[in-house]
Structure formats: structure tokens, C-alpha cells
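Morning!

As promised:
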Amino acid sequence: MFSIGELFDWLTDPENWTGRYGLANLFVEHLTLTLVSLAIAGLLAIPIGIAIGQSGRGETLVIAISSASRAIPTMGLMFALVMVMGVEFRQFAVVLALVGIAIPPVLAGAYAGIKSIPIVIREGARAQGMTTWQQIRHVGFPLSAPSMVGGFKIAFLQVVSTVVLAPLVGLGGLGFGVIQGLALRDFSQLTGSALVIVLLSITGERLLAKAQSKLDRRLTHY
Amino acid sequence: MEWAAKNFDFVLELSVTHLLISLVPLVLGSVLAFALVRLTPLKLAGTIGTTFSAIYAIPSLAVFVALPAVIGTSYLGPTNVIIALSIYVAAAMFFSTRDAFSQVPKPTVFIARAQGLSPLQLFIHVELPLAIPGLIAGLRVAAASTVSMASIGAIVGVRNLGYLFLDGFQRKIPEEILTGLFAIFIIGIALDLGLWALGKVLTPWTRRSAQRV
Amino acid sequence: MIKPIKKSIKSVIALSAVAVLGLAGCAESNSEPLVIGSQAYYSNEIVAEVYAQVLEDAGYSVDRQFALGQRDVYVPALLAGEIDIFPEYTGNLLQYFDPEATATAEEDVYQALQGALPAGLTALALSGASDQDSYNVTSDFAMKNNLTSIGDLAGVSGIRLGGAPELAERPYGPTGLLSSYGVTVEFEATGDTTVESLVAGLIDMANVYSADPRIQQLGLVTLTDPQGLFLSSNLVPIASDAVNQEARDLISAVSSAMTAADLVALNVRSVDEQLSSAVIARDWLLSKGLID
């Protein structure tokens, strides 16, 4: 049924890396969808998270959103949005679904990051006469950076995982090999694609985890 | 919603399967996580921790689809998905379990030991009760992820609420997809409340009315 | 401390396994239930449900394993005895077992399939209902390019073909189009968004099952296939040796009773009235007097 040799042959066959449905192009599609969604989520969630963290208003909403969001069935959300927006806008619909999935963890990370800054420091910045923007730029943002990166890390994993399902709505991404491999019972294609997905996922996770701990150390070591 | 009303029995049947397919991995995964926490020597703890973080990074469809190829489970029936979900739960609960037990106050343990409690009595009457809040918190998070991840199992033929997404999309019936989303939401909330209530029941000393002079 | 844990783990697993298997659809009967499978295709599921209900009506216990996916996933399960009955399509199944098959007409394909099936599987009565892959274009596209048969596409450039991901590897896919008709296409894996993509102009040609009600509803043009790229494909029940003669006769009876019009009507009920396969199957069986 499963042979490491066949898997190796499949992974090293250049035919499987070229073309519209070759691993190289699928990888680029997967990464693009992920990064675009994370960027949009960040642009939306970080300012809101910082604002809620600073002012304290809307706290319960943040906590409720981030715990409820873990239960969102990503496949259902994606299908629902593609159906509602129509097949011509499926890229847009999928990105919207991905942004929806990415916002809660990023929001929680930004909020928790600001909250964790000792009130003395936050007040101190204000007492020094910094404008709100200066406070965020010189105090809020740097000090909550580790937590924000942590939020992105969780979001990254969720998003990469959901993009695997994108071929079900006619898009590309590395999930294509998993889905076609499953249909054709081509275990090499299936596990080979799964392997590339896992590598992408783990590499991103490790990079973000490393960034998070580096930022963390920079704050506590002087 | 008309569609939901017309197909209520079917949705109910799928919901029950979905609930079971979520509960069994929660139990199995927690037990596995607990066993690993208690049985791993300190030296390996770091490696196991990293391995489990890595497992959580693997997209669930990849695991559902590759597991039969790798360990020979059948695509037919829920076993494949249950094993995969249990692994995810174990990965998540490993850290929760470890933290929950490590924050049991050492002095309490020493006093109990000094009073002559055997290791098993110590565990049942002291460590476990004090670890319950942490365990329940971890379980609630794991339950939420499991309930939503289980729906992806429908792609490999498991008969749960995820089927409503696939069939609704294939037949272009938006209400079917929405019913699925709603049903999963309900199950998620029910599990969350149930676990919260279980935590309250198992820790009567945290309730104000239990305060004695 | 370890022993009690191991014991509880074992009993939990055993209990859960029993609970889960019990929920997998077994009836109260203590004999081995017949396992009926279906593809992840609503139309196929309706037919599978028809088989299941006619057997249950006669007192058999049935285990439904629906929405299993493609042939490549469930045929090995059929051969291994994990599935007993499956609604299949003669042409596609013949090509699965004998890629070099040359039969194209309905009866020839059925005969050839019976010969090509491996030991342990039998094809029961052929149904008049056909539901096969077909290449379709919008009526505008057909008029603009003067298309009636697949071969007419040879003069058109930049044709985007849409269908399920596995179409790329099927013998009637892009490779077959090139070798049988000299038509080059660019493949887009559109999956369940195929028909919408065709209508929206994102693809030019789509592989749509011939019994799909949307072909008529949306005025799509099915291109004729003189070269026999697609084998004639009718519904046929496939049974494993575990199925006894009485059950086989019951299923053959419903199979013969289903006409092509019946199948399209069943599909219409599913897509337009949005009913479940269980309800649609039951209504049809009652209307034909096949169950009471």
C-alpha cells in the first residue's frame, strides 16, 4: 500500500513540480493565500486589539470571540462564503473566510500583549507627554510584539490548514495533491503533498516561534 | 428554515454521530496525554513537547487522508478519524495536563504524604481534584478544536455534520450549509457548557456555599 | 498505578468502539448487515438509498457507508469484502478494470464489464438509466464556434476544460481529447464549482454528468462523441459474493425498473426540492410499488 521508495520517486520527479498543478506553483499559491490573509487580518486586528487593550472597553467581546472562534468549522465557512459571493469571486470569498479565521488569534495576541504591559509603564508613557501614536509606537507595539507574533503563529497554522481545503472550491494550493491523490488512490501523491504541506506548516511555525522568543528575550534581557 | 425542518431527523442523526466522534477522541486523547505526562522521564519532556507542537501544525485533512496509508486503518468507518483526532487532543492536552498537575501546591502534597496517604490515594484525593480546573480549561479548548476539525472528516467519508457542507455545496443548497454551521455551533457550545458544569461539580470547594467555618 | 490506567484505557477504547460501531447504522438484527456504499455524489447516493430501502423492506439489515469518494477508494474495499453492494456506472467501471476496452454501445459495455469484473464481484441487472460524463458548453459558446461534436473544437484555441481534480488523469480527460479528437485543452480543477464556472465564463467546457438537471435547466449544449471517448455508461448494481440470491433479485428488480427519465426526475427532486436521498428514494419506491 505505502512505499517510501515510491514516495521518494514521486517527490523527486520533476514532472510533479512543474505546470499549473505542479508542487512549485501550488506551493506559491498556498503561500500567497496564507500571507495575504494574514496581512489583512493583521491590519484589521492589531489596531483593534491595541485599542481594546489600552482602553479596556470591549474586553469581554475579545475574550468571547477568541474562544468561540476555535470552534468555527473552516470548511463550512469557506463553502458558505463561496456560495454567497458566487464562483467568479471565489478567491475573494476564500480570502474573506481566511481573514475571518485569522482575526481572532491575532486580535487575542495584540490584546493580551497590551494588557501584559505593566500599567506603570503605560501610564508613564502618557505622563511623559507622548501622543497616543507615540505611545503605541514606542511602548505599546514593542512591548506587545512577542504576544502579537504568538497570535500570528496560531493564525498561520489555522490558515495554512484551511487553505488545504481550497481545491474543493476550485482554487489551487497544496491541498490539490491531497484531494486528487485521495481520488486516484495515488498514495505517493497524497502523502507527498501532505509532506510538503507539513513542511510549510512546521517551518512557518518554528520561524514564528523563534521570532516570538527572540522578541521576548530582547525585552527581558538588558 | 425550511430545509432544516424538512431534514430534521437526518441532521439530528448526523449531530449525534458528530458528537460521538468528538467525545471519544477527547477521552482517548486526554488519557493518552495523561499517561505521557506521568510516564515520561524529565529528560524527554522537552522532545515530546516539541513533537506535539509539531503535530498540532499538521493540517487535519492531511492526517485523515494519510493515516490509512501509513498505519493501515481503513477509510471506511470512523476509526481512522477518531484515531487522528485523538492524536490532536493528546497533543493539546499534553501541555494542559502537565501544567495542571505541576501547579498543585507542593506543600499540600507533602502534608498528604506525611499523613500516610498511599500514592494512589494521594492522586485520587489530592492531586487530581486540585488539577481539575486546569484540566477542564484545557479540555474546553481541545473540545472546540475537535468539534470543528471533525467536520473535515466528512471528506474521507465519515458521516457527520461535515457532510452537510459537502452535500450542500454540491447541490447548491445554502440552507444546508448554514444548518451545518449552526448545528456545529450548538454542539460546540453544549460541550463547552457541559465541561464547565462538570468542572463546577467536581470542585465543590470552590463554590461559596461550600465554605465552612 | 500503570496497570489500572492501562485497564481503563482498554475498556474505554472497547466501549467507544462498540458505541461508535453501533451508531454506524446497524439495525437490531444479529446477522451480518449488508454494507451498501455510495460515491460522494448526491445522485449516486439516492440510488444507493433505493437499494438500501428495498432490502430493509424485505427484512435485511443494512449498514450505509455513503459518500465514500472515488472508485479508487472504494473498489479495493469492495474487493476486500468491506462493502457488499454499490451502485455503479457500466462504462466508467469497465474503464477502471480494463483501460483498453473498446466496447462503446450500451449492451456491449455491459457484457464487457461482466467479463472484466474480478472474482468476487458480479454485475446485477442493467438499468435503463444512464448517467455518464459528458462534455458541455454554453449555448452561446456553441453558436459562436459552430459546435455540435467534440471534434468541432479542434479549430478553437485556448479551451479551458473544467471538472473534478481526477479528470486530469482519466482516459477521457485531456489526454483522450488530444488523442481521439486532436483537441488541446487547459485543465482547471473546478470540482463542485464546475457548472457555475462554465456559466460564469471562467471555463469553456465542462464535464457534467448527463443526468444532471442543470444541463436542461441552464440550456447547456452536450457535445456529441462520435469517437466514443466516453463509453456508454448505465447504472448497474455491483454485488459481492456475500449477497444472497434473494437480495440480488430484489436489487435487480429496482435496477431494471429505473428509467433514464426516472433518474433525472430523482435528481431534480434533490436539487430543486432539496429533499434528502432517504425521502426521495422512499417516494420513488412507493410510487413504483416496489415497497409497501
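The two ends of chain C are 59 Å apart (CA to CA).

Hope this helps with the figure draft.
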